[in-house]
Amino acid sequence: MNAVAKFLTWKHVILFVLSGVVLYLTLVPLIMILYGTFTDGPPGTDVSFTLKNYVKAYGSAALFHSAFNSIVFAVASGLISFVLGGFLAWVTERTNTPFKTVIYLLVLFPFIVPGILTTISWVFLLSPTIGVLNQFFVFLFGLEEPPFDIYSFAGMIWVFGIDHITLPFLLMAAAFRSMDPSLEEAARMSTMGPVRGFYHVNLKIMFPSILATWLLLFIRGIETFEAPAVIGIPAGIRVFATDIFLALRDSPTDYNLAGTYATAYLFVTVVGVLLYLRVTGIAERFATITGKGYRPHTIDLGAWRYFVLSLVLALLFVAVVLPIGIVLWTSFMPFYAPPSLKMLSLFTWDNYRMIFELDEFYRALSNNLISGGAAATIAVMLSVGVAWIVVRTDIPGRKLLDIVTFSPIALPGVVMSLALVWMYLTLPIPVYGTLWILVIAYVTKFIPISLRAVHASLLHVHKELEEAAELSSTSWLRNMTFVLLPLILPSLLIGWLYVLTLTFKVLSIPVLLSHVGTEVLPVLIFGLYESGEFSQLSAMGIVLVAAIAGISGIARLISNRFSVQAAA
């Protein structure tokens, strides 16, 4: 009985500690920023309570204009991503179109390219003054004016939409792969034609998955920073993310007004996440996978499969090959210029030599590795504890702990960064201006991702293994270390590498939190773009893509090597 009581005490202590850490990471910064919206001074100073920030923010048409822009941007760009990604998923999963492996590799490639680099590449392609495609169409058709202008609302929507086809592709591919073919066969046996059958069977059954996918794209569109910063700010197009960014860049910095903007921002994203959780809950009632083995029906396109292949390859050439190709080209040029035979004579490795001789590059790379590695380690450790409590215990409050840990996915990067700035300029904890504040931000933002990986792996490990270990040892910590962790080690490594990869890609968090000496690579690339160093930023971007590809490749090898053991 004493051992049982001791074991239960351990569980309750762990729950208390983990709950405290998660609440500290997620809720305390938001409470601090909300407090700041009702004060009249910057963090850490003597202040008085006031409503003037809300009057200034919500009494201005500018905020509602930004809100309208943010919502339209998220809806329209999400629609582009979903239509293109869903089409590619249908082609690869449900048709006999050839070269599916090539299609898969090209669709997955945008995952390893940082959003800031993709956005800059589209400036190289569609700028009205230097855009390669604009110059090509002007020459080809003898136009007097370039046909495209990247510095427009449509340009912002296009860049984000075309860059995010991977997410709907993966989610919709899984949905197409899970479709029970007997339902389609029943539709074909009736009087339904293929179009009517697709509407009444496939579309209706997949509607929850479709809506959930689109909501994820909407949330991502609301919180994105790269396209609004690179394209929207020069074009005078304001959204929530840039409102907060510009409020913090103004001199003197108006933290109170920026926090007030963040409240509207946060409201929209939280509503989106709540709708997503609701829709994914409904989706479980539409499950069509049973214990019977089956393969989804493959549509024979006949001779049309080569036309579909041509259409898909043309789409992926525009979405993937052109953006990374123009960055690669620029990285070998002494200055930015459209590709031509004449410019080949100026081919040089000097940009790469300059990058590898630049002290700031090594400092940013070191900062990325240190902050990303520390954040990935802490996120995985917290995920193990939270997942074990949620899956293995019946302690009251475990579901709430799971929800609170998942909730940071609704926190836009700029909002989280602003909350941490306010918090650590107020509290006497010396982390502001150091790498630790980046670690805290990364852990908070990415712990939902590592938690899902650990949670899924833990479900595959039967509880009897832990119960058998308990019979030979009364130490919960020993059983956790030498029994459970080795069984879920592949998922831990994949979650760790995935979080590390994301820290190399995201800009919205470090752009507000990093300072001189604590810059990371995405911030350094953004700074090079602002100073017009296009060739150097392209070379640095290619190096960064290679590093992310290497990390992702390691994660893939681990997944393939241990997939069977991990699911045992």
How would you describe what is shown here?
This protein has 568 residues and is mainly alpha-helical. The chain folds into 2 domains: 61-348, MetI-like fold (Orthogonal Bundle), CATH 1.10.3720.10; 349-410 and 428-568, MetI-like (MetI-like fold, Orthogonal Bundle), CATH 1.10.3720. Helices cover 75% and strands 0% of the residues. It is built from 26 helices and no strands. It has helices at 2-37, 52-58, 61-94, 100-108, 115-126, 132-141, 153-163, 166-177, 181-189, 194-223, 226-235, 240-249, 255-283, 304-331, 341-344, 350-356, 359-392, 398-406, 413-426, 435-459, 463-472, 476-487, 489-505, 510-513, 521-530, 534-566. Helix 21 (463-472) packs antiparallel against helix 22. The longest helix is centred in the N-terminal third of the chain and has 36 residues, at 2-37. It is globular and about 75 Å long. The chain starts with a helix and ends with a helix.
List the helices and strands and how they pair.
Layout: H1 2-37, H2 52-58, H3 61-94, H4 100-108, H5 115-126, H6 132-141, H7 153-163, H8 166-177, H9 181-189, H10 194-223, H11 226-235, H12 240-249, H13 255-283, H14 304-331, H15 341-344, H16 350-356, H17 359-392, H18 398-406, H19 413-426, H20 435-459, H21 463-472, H22 476-487, H23 489-505, H24 510-513, H25 521-530, H26 534-566
Helix pairs in contact: 1-13, 1-17, 1-18, 1-19, 2-13, 3-4, 3-7, 3-8, 3-10, 5-7, 5-11, 5-14, 7-11, 8-10, 9-10, 10-13, 12-13, 13-19, 14-26, 16-26, 17-18, 17-20, 17-23, 20-23, 21-22, 23-26, 25-26
What descriptive keywords fit this protein?
568 residues; MetI-like fold; 2 domains; 26 helices; globular; disordered C terminus
